[in-house]
Model the fold of this input.
Amino acid sequence: MSDTGSAEHSPKNDAQVEQPNTEVDPKKAHSYTYWVKHQPNFYGENAVNIQPKKVEEEQVKTLKAQEETKTDGHSAWNTAGTWEEKKLNGKFFKEVLEKALIGYKNKDGNLEITAINEVTGEGRLIVSRGKKRIGFELGIVIEYTGRGNLEGGQGTIRYREFQEDGDHEHEIEVDEGDEKRKDIQKAVESSLKAITELTLNTLLKLKD
Done:
C-alpha cells in the first residue's frame, strides 16, 4: 500500500545568499553628517546638502575683490570683527611714508624731505571685537635737502627705533664737508619735532 501522505520538501539552494551588512558604527550613527546623509527627510524643508562644492573662478575673483576693497581692517570672512592679526613689513611702511612725507617742507621753507631711504622692522594691525590697533617697531632713514639759503645742503634723519608708544630714538646726519653744516644742523633740529609727529601720525592713521 503506497504512502500518499508524504510531506513536500522545499528545495535547498546550493549557495547560501549573503545578507548585506546593515550594522552601523555607533560613533557614525550619532554624527551630524550621518543623519543628513542617511536621513534626508529628517530636517524636512531645512535639509542641507553637505556635499563639497567646487568654488568657481568667478567666485574667487569676487571674494578677492571684496578683500581688497575692505576698509574696516578685518578680512571679508571675518564679518563679526573678532580677533585678527595682520603682519606689516618694512616695504609696506616705506611706501606709506613716501606718499605722506616726500615733498614736506619746514615752516621756513629751507628744508625739504626728498626721500625715504630705508624702513626696516615690522608691525601688526590687530582687530579685536571690531576695534583696531596698530603696533610697530621700525628703523627709518629720511633724506632731506636744503632749499633757499641752505641750497645744496643735504643729509639724513635716522630713527633707530620708531615705535607707536612714543619711543623715537634718532640721529641727525649732515653730509661731510658741507660749508653750511651748522645752519643745516640747526634747521633740522628745529624741524625735528614736526617731522617726527608727521611720521607718527601717518603710521597711526593706518588703523583708521
Observations:
- Strands lie at 84-89, 111-128, 131-146, 154-163, 168-174.
